[in-house]
Amino acid sequence: MAALWFPEPPSKPARLLPPLALAYIGDAVYEVAVRQHVIARPNLRPHHLHRESTKFVSAKAQARLLALIEPQLTEQEQDVVRQGRNAKSGTVPKNADVLDYRHATAFESLVGYLYYTGAHDRLRGLILQGFELLERADG
């Protein structure tokens, strides 16, 4: 079993988990990555931290990040993304476009999959590359 942050593995191997379950854990893992990213910057006021975080965690930002890193994905990772994008969650937040939301879910599924398979170096690399590409695109 891959080294996880806590000693409770999922009930099934990552490749057998439903895409929305992968997205559920992926959302939390990605949130930690974003928080560490913004805390690494000089301005640590809570309002500033929150405002900076939203540049990365919104459905629109996650959809953009996925589009930016997608050319780097392996066939297996692309399959996870496709399954996550096609998963029917039943709800869409009122402040998100349906397509952005589905792509954000796909991204979170990928993050969850990489976390649970122990591909942590790959996970970090893709997220850091995504942060850099997003910030470069935003100028």
From TrEMBL:
Keywords: Cytoplasm, Endonuclease, Hydrolase, Magnesium, Nuclease, Ribosome biogenesis, RNA-binding, rRNA processing, rRNA-binding. One of its GO terms (molecular function) is ribonuclease III activity. GO terms for biological process: rRNA processing. Coiled coil: none annotated. Its cofactor is Mg(2+). It is found in: Cytoplasm. Its EC number is 3.1.26.-. Residues 21-118 form the RNase III domain. Pfam families: Ribonuclease_3. GO terms for cellular component: cytoplasm. The active site is at D27. Belongs to the MrnC RNase family. Involved in correct processing of both the 5' and 3' ends of 23S rRNA precursor. Processes 30S rRNA precursor transcript even in absence of ribonuclease 3 (Rnc); Rnc processes 30S rRNA into smaller rRNA precursors. Homodimer. This is Mini-ribonuclease 3. It comes from Paenibacillus woosongensis. The gene is mrnC.
